[in-house]
Amino acid sequence: MVRGAKKAIAVGVAVAVACGLQKHLNFVPGPRHAAPVAAAAASMMMAPAAFADEIGDAAKKLGDASYSFAKEVDWNNGIFLQAPGKFQPLSALKAIDKMIEMGAAADPKLLKEAAEAHHKAIGSISGPNGVTSRADWDAVNAALGRVVASVPKAKVMAVYDSVKAITDPGVPAYMKSLVNGPDAEKAYQGFLEFKDVVEKNQVTTASAPAVVPSGDKIGVAAKALSDASYPFIKDIDWLSDIYLKPLPGKTAPETLKAIDKMIVMGAKMDGNLLKAAAEAHHKAIGSIDATGVTSAADYEAVNAAIGRLVASVPKTTVMDVYNSMAGVVDSTVTNNMFSKVNPLDAVAAAKGFYTFKDVVEASQR
């Protein structure tokens, strides 16, 4: 289920927020500065509209300070797929769980706007390093600032502390060595000023939990799917590092096109159901055993939550994701993964999934 938790971050877009913070934090000069930088965050959800302009204005100033640095970063580098130190999946999962909690606490409307800003930014990417336009760089930073601002400080700090715990202390210096040092330092100072604008508007209380549907057809179908596929789930090596490997024969720009389709799909999801899915994943992580497998009950709850999410998105958007992934995942990948489990369990799981898919599709808007 470690892999499933990673998937939830993509769904929740929280991962974009956390990664956005961490990329800046790669240039933190010392521990005494780390906490205020990570705390970054702030308040939009309960604030007057004027604060939105304040964060937007601050994002433009951050852009002035950081865009030169952004152009120097090789965004196509496979290093961003690697663990930031020793490979320790269960420890990394604790950090992912904190990101999920942060995403669940964020304002769904602001999450949607952040996803849309990322989609637009992907459309303006150019050059060998894969950098977006200056205007879209500013828009993404503003959107992330507003998302982080809608989350209480304690949850933001929990993400920072958990990521710090799995990050090798040599990582910041190494990442800084890949770009122009003065530009990195200028970007860092700009980020400190930006986080101050966000932090002063910080919310103090988290939003209410999601309303979870019950007694629906998707919930019933999720139980049938879970009964059919749980043996297969237990066959999988969730602690393998294979999930961090790049797709064979595909470049970063090619893979990014598929990721873009996922972002578009995420932006169209129902906000309450998105929150419910994040909360289901958080609970499932809490019941994971030493092999990375969650309980049967939590597995069922996650399947139901994901099914309801998919049903909240138009079929054409879902198919865009499927087709884009089919274009970047070679058959050797599926064959290799199939070879690692009991084939009878895999076939039973597939049959259960096809039935579940039909129920979701019938409920789709």
Automatic annotation (TrEMBL):
Domain of life: Eukaryota
SUPFAM superfamilies named in the record: Peridinin-chlorophyll protein
InterPro entries named among the record's database cross-references: Peridinin-chlorophyll-bd_prot (IPR003376), Peridinin-chlorophyll-bd_sf (IPR036550)
Signal peptide: none
Protein location: Plastid, Chloroplast
Keywords, sorted A to Z: Chlorophyll, Chloroplast, Chromophore, Light-harvesting polypeptide, Plastid
Protein purpose: Water-soluble antenna for capture of solar energy in the blue-green range. Peridinin is an asymmetric carotenoid.
Protein name (database record): Peridinin-chlorophyll a-binding protein, chloroplastic (PCP)
Provenance organism: Cladocopium goreaui
